Amino acid sequence: MRYKLGLIGHPIGHSLSPWIHKHFLDLAGLDGEYKLYEGDHQQLPNVLKYLKQEGIDGFNVTVPYKQMIVDFLDEIDEDARILGAVNTVVLQNGKWKGYSTDGAGYIRSLTDPFPNLLNKNTSVLLLGAGGAARGIYRALIQEEIGRVDIANRSVVKAEQLIASMRFPGVDTQVLTFQEAEEYLGHYDLIIQTTSVGMKPHVDQQVLSLENLSADTVVSDIVYQPIMTQLLQDASDRGASIHHGHAMLLYQGQLAFEKWTGQSLEIHHLVDELEKKLRGENS
Ligand SMILES: NC(=O)c1ccc[n+]([C@@H]2O[C@H](COP(=O)([O-])OP(=O)(O)OC[C@H]3O[C@@H](n4cnc5c(N)ncnc54)[C@H](OP(=O)(O)O)[C@@H]3O)[C@@H](O)[C@H]2O)c1
């Protein structure tokens, strides 16, 4: 069998997904292709019709289609339904089923280097309340982490995020960035999910780390650049850091599992992708 896989979104010319899935196909010893299918907002129904005609086995979904695709699929996984977003679509028995692998992919990327970090005593600060934060927040509460606070520029958006997926047993509070800066030393893990610090604004940092404890792990899901200003600052203060490109790999690993049934060992690719990104950034 030759797998037909791909990505839909706009713009996707610089996507790393073809690189990632080519490596996954090679690792799995499978024949296949992973193509980019680019279109604008109005073209989504046509793109989907074309994919069905092509006989595609599955595809990833990125900006701006993650939310709007929900209305065009035959079935939606429970997590993706609650998140209101899909990043992976699988053809199952002639029907398209949508999943979200971002949150679970993030958890895998984190527990790979930090296997004992997440437990019921862990205290997490999530910075941001956008699409990526929603997936990560849901995955964290499913892990039954003790405390997950959220700080966001728009406090209302953070409150809406929590209200959309209340979960008993997890303490959550919404904070302003100023409050978060003050309480920073109380957290075991800080996860940065805003777009602040992303290329070309590489000298920006969403909040001050003045009160950071060196025992805290600081994670930034922004991966361009690979060493964000926030991660550099955290590292300079003696904290452990976690780079965003690993999430990209592990959400892809979960998508690949859904398409092919193969669960791959991809640890070594984290360094490979880092090298690729550093090369592109220099
Ligand atoms: N590593 C990965 O695999 C991966 C996966 C997904 C996303 N990402 C990255 O994560 C970032 C966010 O993506 P997303 O899809 O969640 O975007 P999104 O839904 O547009 O959310 C953007 C978030 O950034 C905040 N924000 C934007 N500009 C800000 C500023 N100047 N000051 C403070 N906060 C600001 C927004 O706050 P408000 O709510 O107040 O507007 C919101 O919380 C992007 O850089 C994206 O590339 C990485």
TrEMBL record:
Residue ranges constituting the Shikimate dehydrogenase substrate binding N-terminal domain according to the UniProt record: 7-89
Binding sites annotated in the UniProt record for shikimate: 15-17, 62, 87, 102, 223, 251
Keywords noted in UniProt: Amino-acid biosynthesis, Aromatic amino acid biosynthesis, NADP, Oxidoreductase
Membrane spanning residue stretches: none
Enzyme Commission identifier(s): 1.1.1.25
Residues involved in NADP(+) binding: 78, 128-132, 221, 244
Top EC class for this record: oxidoreductase
Domain Quinate/shikimate 5-dehydrogenase/glutamyl-tRNA reductase, residue spans: 120-196
Primary role: Involved in the biosynthesis of the chorismate, which leads to the biosynthesis of aromatic amino acids. Catalyzes the reversible NADPH linked reduction of 3-dehydroshikimate (DHSA) to yield shikimate (SA).
HAMAP family assigned: Shikimate_DH_AroE
Family under the similarity heading: Belongs to the shikimate dehydrogenase family.
Protein's name according to its UniProt entry: Shikimate dehydrogenase (NADP(+))
Organism: Gracilibacillus salinarum
Gene name of the record: aroE
